[in-house]
From TrEMBL:
This is Large ribosomal subunit protein mL49. Keywords: Mitochondrion, Ribonucleoprotein, Ribosomal protein. InterPro entries: Ribosomal_mL49. GO terms for biological process: translation. It comes from Pristionchus mayeri. The lineage of its organism: Eukaryota, Metazoa, Ecdysozoa, Nematoda, Chromadorea.
Amino acid sequence: MLRMFRSSLSRISRVSSRLTSNSVPSIVDDKPWLNPWKHAIPHKDETHTSYSEASVDWSLVERVIPRDIVPDLPRHSSYPTPSGWRPPLDPPPSLPYHVSRKRDHLFPLYLERRRDTLNEKSLDFDYVELVTLKGIDGDVFACEADLRSYLEEAVGHPVTTHVDELKGRIKVKGADRSHLEKFLFEKGF
């Protein structure tokens, strides 16, 4: 048994010595088509790179980075300001819905221009302006009913609305953005 073990060890050592010998790389060196990348890339002994630290004035960059905290409401001596801005009522109105302002303390009103109908005389499309009110929490349909009655009274003609309850949005066709702002200011948002 011991003799069989010694013979198998000697066979293993002979095979390992053949594998570690330089006979295999010499075949590869003689035949570059076996490993073309070895001959295409120059051999490097060291791969260390040098670096240098640059001094940067970060104060110029920090003022451009957006703030993580919403700034406080600006205080003015009288309201409305010359631009027409007013702060929200404190405490907020007790309505079944609430319209939150954006981080710059303005209302989330967005204007969108879409192709509407084909003008048969000029064979060109007429465009319509849609105003989207976003950020509505609570009963969106109650907000839409109040908004539609206010806008139809202010504009003097019927106004079309579309409610997206899941996203808390109302799209309005037939009224100007300024009328929606007046509605939100009068409600105290």
